[in-house]
Amino acid sequence: MKFFVIIFFILLASSVSAQFSLKGKLRTLSPVSVKVTDLAGNVIAECMVKNGEEFRTEPVHIRKDLYVFHFGEYTENIILTDNPVTLNGFFNDKEPGNSSMEFEGIDLHLQFLEINEKCWGQMFDKDVFKSYAEEDQTLDPVVRASLMYCRKIFLGHDYEPFKRVLDMISENERDAQVVQFVIDEVTKRKSAALGGEAYNFTFVDLEGKNVSLSDFRGKLVLIDFWASWCGPCRREMKSLLPIYQELKGDDLVFISISLDDNEKDWRKLVEEEKLPWVMLWNKEGFPKGKGQNAIQKAYGFYQIPFIILIDKDGKTIARGLRGDKVREAIEKARNSH
C-alpha cells in the first residue's frame, strides 16, 4: 500500500512537551482496529476506528524509532517521534492497496520514503542505496538503520555494509530498537565476514556418518547450500560439475549441504544427480518465514543457493559465489598459496 502523505510543519513553543498520540478520522468499510507496536511487538497505542468517526489514542512518550502500524491484518513499518500524528482518509480493509490515507506529523518517515523511492527503478539499485545508507553523513541515525532493516533481504550476506552503517551511528544514538537490529546483525555477520574463522559444522553423510568442516583442514573447501525443492539450487549444482571436473585435486573438496526438511527428499535428489563430491544433510531444514536456522546464522545467509569458499586454514575467503565466480575464486585461492 502506498501512503499519500501530507506534512504540515507546526512550530511549537519550546516549553511544550510533546507526546505521541494518534488521532484523526477514517472512512472504512467496517470497524477496524488500528494500533502501533514497537519492533519487539509491544503495543504502544491502540484504538477501534469506525467509519467516519473521530478517534484518538492516549498520549504516551515514545523514543524516535521504527515502529509497526497495524490496520486490521495489514501492517506497515513507519518511523515515529515523540509527537502527535494525525491520520485521515480512506482505509479499505478488503483491499489495502486501494486505500488512500494522509498522515500529518511523520516528517522523518517522509525522508525515509523519499530515499527508498530513489533506490527503485525497474530493480533495487544497491549503489543508490549505499550512497545514502552507508555514505550520507547528514542522514538521521534512525532513518539510516531503518533503511537497513527494511531492505536487508536485498543486501546480500555481507558483514561490511552493516559494520559501515553502525560505525556512522554514534554511541549516544544507539538506543532505538532499529539501531539495535543493526548492532545484532553486525554481531551475527562478523563470524561470517571474509577472513574470519568459518563455523565448524557437523552433518551426516549418505552413510549416516558425521562429517565436520574441520575434517578437511589443509584443503580448500567449497560449500554449496541447497534444497531439492529449489530450482535455482539444482541448476547451480549442475553448473558446478564442469568446474569440479576441471579443477579437482587433492587440495580441493566440494561439499553440498542440503537444507531439505525430509531426509528422503535429500537422498532422492542425490541419487538422481549422482554428483561426485561430499553430500551432507542438515536435518534442521530450511526455516519457514523470515527466520534463520543455526547454519544460516553462522554463515550469515538467508536465501539459497548460497556458495562459499573456505581456505586451508579454515577461514572464509569468498562468499555468495555463482557460476564462473566459483572457478575464479578457487583459482585465486590456489595462486595465493
Explain what this protein looks like in three dimensions.
The protein is elongated. The protein has a 7-stranded mixed sheet, with helices on one face. Strands 4-1-7-8 form a 4-stranded mixed sheet, with no helix packed on it. Mean pLDDT is 89; it is low at 1-16. It contains 9 helices and 15 strands. Helix content is 29%, strand content 25%. α1 (107-118) packs across α3 (141-150). The chain has 3 domains: 22-105, Immunoglobulin-like; 119-188, no CATH class; 202-335, 3-Layer(aba) Sandwich (Glutaredoxin), CATH 3.40.30.10. With 337 residues, it is an alpha+beta fold. It has helices at residues 107-118, 126-133, 141-150, 160-167, 177-190, 231-247, 263-273, 294-299, 324-335, and strands at residues 22-28, 32-37, 43-49, 54-56, 65-71, 74-80, 85-91, 100-104, 202-205, 210-212, 220-226, 252-258, 278-281, 306-310, 316-319.
Question: Which descriptors apply to this entry?
Answer:
3 domains; Thioredoxin_CS; elongated; single chain; disordered N terminus; disulfide bond; 7-stranded mixed beta sheet; Glutaredoxin; alpha+beta; 337 residues; Immunoglobulin-like
Write a concise synopsis of the structure shown.
The chain is an alpha+beta fold and 337 residues long. The protein has helices at residues 107-118, 126-133, 141-150, 160-167, 177-190, 231-247, 263-273, 294-299, 324-335; strands at 22-28, 32-37, 43-49, 54-56, 65-71, 74-80, 85-91, 100-104, 202-205, 210-212, 220-226, 252-258, 278-281, 306-310, 316-319. It is 29% helix and 25% strand.
Overall number of structural domains: 3
Mean pLDDT across the residues is 89
Q: What is the name of the CATH superfamily of the largest domain?
A: Glutaredoxin
| End-to-end gap | 53 Å
Protein name: TlpA family protein disulfide reductase
GO biological process, one term: cytochrome complex assembly
GO cellular component, one term: cell envelope
GO molecular function: antioxidant activity; oxidoreductase activity
